[in-house]
Structure formats: structure tokens, C-alpha cells
Amino acid sequence: MEETNRKPSAITSSCHVVAMPFPGRGHINPMLNLCKQMLSIQPDIFFTFVVTQEWHNLLSSYEKPPNVHFRTIPNVIPSELVRAKDFPGFLEAVATNLEVPFEKVLDELHPGVDVIVADTCLNWVVRVGNHRSIPVASFWTMSATVFSVFLHFDLLSQNGHFPVQLSERGEEVVDYIPGVPPTRLRDLPAFFHGSGRKTLHRALEDASMVPKAQYLLFTSAYELEAGVVDALKSKFPFPVYSVGPSIPYLELQDNSCLTTSDQNDVPDYLKWLNSQPKESVLYVSMGSFLSMSSAQMEEIICGVCSSGVRFLWVSRGATTLFKDVHVNTGLIVPWCDQLRVLSHPSIGGFWTHCGWNSAMEAVFSGIPMLTSPIAWDQTPNSKKIVDDWNIGWRVKQGVDLERLITREDVAKLVKSFMEPESDEVKQMRKKAKELQEACQAAIADGGSSHTNLKSFIRDISHGEHK
Q1: Residue 75: DSSP 8-state
Q2: Distance between first and last Cα of the chain
Q3: By C-alpha distance, which of 453, 399, 427, 57 is closest to 218?
Q4: Is 108 strand, coil or helix?
């Protein structure tokens, strides 16, 4: 990839957009995908995409569109990869260490900037944009539902629902957050205890700055969260656009290429999937950042491997966990193209930690989910998947969510979830296909997300801020 801090010799474009993602994979990827979505509609937009040096190195092999020019700023801390060990400390560093180098980048950019698309978690960008009279589009990479919870957090306190002990009151229902379906306290974002309490103030500050922005963008399709999006549209005086899913669907090729006679260009895991029956494989991925206990992971591995169900498991650097089990019905890989895998006809289910990007990829692909949320927004995402959309099952049921689920429980659950003759499974798969159709219609020409993106591009290219 070219040297990122070299100024482009000339730019001829309809609009110059600065994209500023939060330095994390679950934030950078949807921002990159948003840029691609916009370019698919207006190819002459020019993007200056700002990343920390470490993420630039990690993205060095990324094939970017020619109109996306990367600029780097110093790392938040000496090694951003330690953020899982001290996430509150990492958030503090992000909030205090990036603003000055970002402003330096803005000072060096030519031509002028028409709009800054900034991750909502970088709330200081709104202040920077307002000071420079540059409109800011706040880009929220979690569900609109979770955003509404943070925006209306004061209602929880007013109704005596924060702080509380979930062990005593977790089943109580919250039904007063605008647009959000009735939700148990235990299904709200994980801010009641542990690291969630330590980082809650950051989320509340992020939400509180959004009213000072000029746009709000969601990575969800309107049809998936219509009630809450409508409620937020009525609250804000500026445009609120659902433009998702902001996943790499533009990079998907015709799936016929997966069965081409030239197998040299097909990854081994896709060759393996090509040999499996339709909807027979459970795809397992527990995410790239947070993880569950090793004891629980061991039970899950043994349970899945003994279930007799075919599976494709992405185990990022933790393949040693499989050394003592017989893997005769599955395949274990360190990485895969997740959206391509989920779109493969052999996949019949997805065991997921419920990160929003993964949930969007599963909905786009029409795949039911087994949910095992670990932290933060994953819990309300699980609730949405299981209770609101009816396209999944929870791995852990009942009140005692801290208990260890045994390998016997896992094997039984996986068998039931992947049983094609089950009426419950048939209904779940039918519902998943209906959501898939709605999601793909949203991004098609004339669909809600496509129309919203066109409106946003028109706003920033010819709007009052030009």
C-alpha cells in the first residue's frame, strides 16, 4: 500500500469525506464498507481514511478503492492489542490522545473537507467539526436499539432500574425507552457490573454528543429496527439515516465460483464446504476480541465435536484447545471470509458471540443463530435475534447465566438446532430467509438503505454546509 501520509497530487471529486473510525476491527470494517457503499453510488467521492499506525500496518494487504486514501496518526498506546486486558484504560487513551493528531491531519488536507464521518465513540470529533464549521456525521456501529438505550439512560434511573442487582431484579421489564421493544433488565447492555460499569460513562458521553452533530448514520437496515429508528428521527432535527448493513457484501462474487473446475483459487475451507450437504454445517466463531473462560470453551468444543453435527470452526490462534478431542465431522481454521462462508449453501446455522457486524452478516445470509453473548452490546443483540426477530436460540437459558454449560448440554443443543426435520427449526429458518429478503431489498436500487445513502450523498455534496 502506498505511503499514507503523502499528499495526493490532485483530487477531482464531487465531495471530500474524512472518515475517522474508532481504532478497533469492529469499527474500522463497517467504516470501510460504508466508504465502498457510497462509492458504488457516487464513484467520484474522495475519502481520506484516518487510522492509527498499528491499524494501518494490519490493513497493509487490504485492497482499497483508488478513491480511498489512508492517513495515519500515532497509536493510542504503545500497543493497541493490549486493549482487551485494560479496555477502560484503552477507552481513556482514545478519548484523550487522538484529538490533536487528528486536527493536524485536517490542517494538512487539500482540498477542503466537506464532511467528517466519525465513529460515535470518538465524540470529540463533533466538537472539532463544529469548531471548524465542518459538518459531522456520527456513525454508530452497534444497533440503533442500543444507541437509544444510552441516549435515554436517564429513564432507567428515573424508573428505579439503575443501579440494581441483576441476580435479584434481572427479570424486570423495561418498556419505556422510545422505540425499543419491552426488554428484561438482564438483556440491556452489560453496564450493570464489572467492566461495563467502568466504561458506562464513556458510552453516555458519546450518546450525549450526537445531538450536536449534523447527521446520524446507523449500520442497520431500517426494516430491522423500524420502531426505534422512527423514534430517533422524531427526536433529532437533523437527518437520521439507516444505511446498513455495512458489511462487505459488495465483495461477494457469484457463488458459482465456489464450485468452479479451477480449484486452485478456492480456499480449502470452501472446498470442504462444497462437499457438504445443503444447510448441514454449523459455523462457529466466537469473535476476535473478547472471549469466554477456557473451562467453558473446553465444554463447548467437546460438546460440538461429540454432537455428530458437521461444523466449520474459526479458532483464532487457539487450535491447541482441540488437541484432546476427535474432530471427525468438522474443520478447524484460523481465519475465513466470514460473509462468504455464511452465504454458502452448506451452512445451516451460526454459533456467534453476537457482535453486531456478525449478526448483520448472518441476517444478510439468512442464517439462524445460536447466541452466546459475552459483554457490552452482545447481550441486547442476542435478545433481538432470539425474541424480536425469532431467528435464533440462546445457548444459556434461565436466570443463572453464569453457570457452566456442560458438553452434554452443548451436544444436545447443537443436534436440536441443526435438525432439519424439526418444525421449530423449519420455522426459524423460514423467518431467517424472510429477514434476508428484507435486508437485501434494503440495499438494492430503490431500497431503504440505498435511498438513504443517496440522500446522504446529496446532502453532503450540495447541502447547506457546502
Answers
A1: -
A2: 31
A3: 453
A4: helix
User: What amino acid is encoded at 198 in this protein?
Assistant: K
Q: Give Cα separations from 218 to 149, 189, 212, 443 (angstroms).
A: 15, 18, 16, 13
Q: Is 401 left (phi over 0), alpha (psi -120 to 50) or beta?
A: alpha
| Alpha-helical runs (H) found in 109-193 | 124-132, 144-151, 153-158, 166-169
As a whole number of angstroms, the distance between CA 73 and CA 78 comes to 13
pLDDT tens, 71-118?
999 987 655 545 667 788 888 889 999 999 999 999 999 878 999 999
Find out whether 46 and 19 touch, Cβ atoms under 8 Å. no
**What's the pTM value of the predicted model, to 2 decimals?**
0.92
167 three-state secondary structure: helix
Q: How far is CA 337 from CA 126, 249, 268, 333, 387, in A?
A: 34, 11, 12, 11, 28
Kindly state the helix (H) or strand (E) to which residue 425 belongs, with its residue range: helix 423-443
CB neighbour list of residue 131: distance below 8 Å, 6 or more residues apart: none
How is residue 96 written as a grid cell? Answer: 484523550
